[in-house]
Design a protein that fits this description.
This protein has helices at about 25-35, 50-60, 95-105, 130-135, 170-180, 195-205, 240-250, 270-275, 325-330, 350-360, 395-410, 430-435; strands at about 5, 15-20, 40-45, 65-70, 70-80, 90, 115, 140-145, 150-155, 160-165, 185-190, 210-215, 215-225, 230-235, 255-265, 285-290, 295-300, 310, 335-340, 365-370, 375, 385-390, 410-415. The protein is α/β, with parallel strands linked by helices and about 450 residues long. It folds into 2 domains: about 5-20 and about 235-435, Alpha-beta prism (UDP-n-acetylglucosamine1-carboxyvinyl-transferase, Chain), CATH 3.65.10; about 25-225, Enolpyruvate transferase domain (UDP-n-acetylglucosamine1-carboxyvinyl-transferase, Chain), CATH 3.65.10.10. The structure holds shikimate-3-phosphate.
Length: about 450
């Protein structure tokens, strides 16, 4: 089977109700926390993408049993640090930065060294952001240039720390929260705002964790060495996957979509705030609270006109995985859009800021960059007619999705390589696109 697709037609008008894949961040966290709970946890609607399957494989390697019965994953935890780790254990996080960073937080007490490896993309990503605070806790970590492979050996003499997390990375914050579970006393993490699913899940599990919300950061206090019971969790839809269908609908002709049961935690909905400021009219309906998380259906209709935006960097963390697709809307807006302080985009599965600029230039859009800020010159009449080929993007799933949505909304004849990258986060992406009428070969 070739690992590319061809798109040569724009999508026709549609009116659909869809489900997208389950939330990746919550799927990974629910599996990792179930591995630390006392008893059998049951998780339904777990995202079955490579990142999450690698999380399941990881806990299994660390001695935690799980089974899948019907649609339910049953995970048998033995409490905090209830792993049974063999000598020379190697865990492979594949493409997942979240798994790689979070699992290190759970390995702070291992008796034997555990080696962490991953794929080509993960091997280029920075781990100093977690190595540094873990070392402060007393953990022994060996790595070359703060890259994987990393060898971690735990200690029985962990000491609580107060740490300032200044990047706004939920992966760093969560790694430390998980490490704090095993650390005696109170660990304090003053964390620049980022997605807070770990904190919410632990609160729902009645774990002694306190979050004080300050203006620009959260003060998180974790009281270590408390057990929590097994739980049931039904994973909601992922706004980062919904994002591509939101923009597909906005930029298509006379179309409507309802995306059901999406996690709309405020730390994730930057895309909705930004696009609504640009003139979209995205609505959240059937709002509910589930285990402390906000869930809603997302209603979107096509729009003919968009305004340029001067996007506040305060929104960066809540839209960090969505900027690629937000940029596509900026290409059609009237005026020059400005996005600032986006250096973190270059720390993702690929150097996304660099690649986004390359991509926009490829489709004829004027872009200017100054350090980590970019200006996108919009053109409401932008249409594509040429042939485009997408390759060499480190198999970054989100760049694949962006290319598909561009082809379906702006036109042109597209050959898009690395189709298999969709398995990282959204395995049924192409199937859903076809169901709403996209012609894909
Ligand atoms: C994630 C956090 C974000 C995000 C990633 C998932 C998480 O990364 O980009 O896709 O689940 O914690 P950072 O925390 O490094 O910004």
């Amino acid at each position: 089977m070739p690992d590319h697709i061809l798109i040569t037609n724009q999508i026709k008008s549609f009116n659909k109700k869809i489900n997208v894949s389950s939330d990746k961040s919550i799927s990974i966290r629910s599996v990792l926390l179930a591995s630390q709970a006392v008893g059998i946890s049951k998780i339904t609607n777990l995202l079955e993408s490579e990142d999450v399957l690698n999380t399941l494989k990881t806990i299994k390697k660390l001695g935690i049993k799980y089974t899948k019965i019907g649609k339910t994953y049953k995970i048998e935890g033995f409490g905090l640090n209830g792993f049974n780790i063999k000598k020379k254990t190697i865990i492979d996080a594949g493409n997942s930065g979240t798994l790689a960073r979070l699992i290190l937080g759970l390995l702070v007490k291992t008796k034997f060294p555990v080696k962490l490896i991953g794929d080509k993309s993960l091997s280029k990503r920075d781990f100093s952001r977690v190595i540094k605070p873990l070392k402060l806790l007393g953990v022994n970590i060996k790595s070359k240039k703060d890259l994987i492979p990393i060898e971690i050996t735990g200690t029985d003499f962990l000491r609580p720390i107060t740490y300032y997390e200044k990047i706004g990375s939920a992966q760093v914050k969560s790694c430390l929260i998980l490490a704090a579970l095993n650390t005696p006393g109170k660990t304090i993490i003053n964390s620049k705002k980022s997605r807070d699913h770990t904190e919410i899940m632990l609160k729902y599990l009645k774990y002694p964790i306190k979050v004080q919300r300050k203006k620009s950061y959260d003060k998180i206090s974790v009281q270590g060495l408390n057990q929590f019971k097994s739980f049931n969790y039904d994973v909601p839809g992922d706004i980062s996957s919904a994002a591509f269908f939101i923009v597909l609908t906005l930029l298509s002709n006379k179309s409507k979509i309802i995306i059901k049961n999406i996690n709309v935690n405020k730390s994730r909905t930057g895309i909705i705030t930004i696009l609504n400021k640009m003139g979209a009219n995205i609505k959240l309906r059937n709002r509910q609270i589930y285990n402390g998380e906000k869930i809603a259906n997302i209603h979107v209709e096509s729009k003919k006109k968009f305004k340029a935006i001067n996007c506040s960097p305060n929104l960066n963390s809540s839209a960090i995985d969505e900027f690629l697709i937000i940029f596509l809307v900026a290409t059609k807006a009237k005026g020059i859009s400005i996005f600032k302080e986006l250096g973190e985009m270059n720390k993702k599965e690929s150097k996304r800021l660099n690649l986004a600029i390359k991509f926009l230039k490829k489709i004829g859009v004027k872009v200017e960059r100054f350090k980590d800020d970019i200006k996108i010159y919009g053109n409401p009449n932008l249409k594509l007619y040429k042939n485009y080929e997408m390759k060499n993007f480190l198999k970054d799933h989100r760049i694949f999705f962006l290319s598909c949505i561009t082809a379906l909304t702006l036109g042109g004849k597209w050959k898009i390589n690395d189709k298999d990258s969709i398995n990282t986060s959204f395995p049924n992406f192409l199937k859903i696109l076809k169901n709403i009428g996209a012609k894909i070969n």
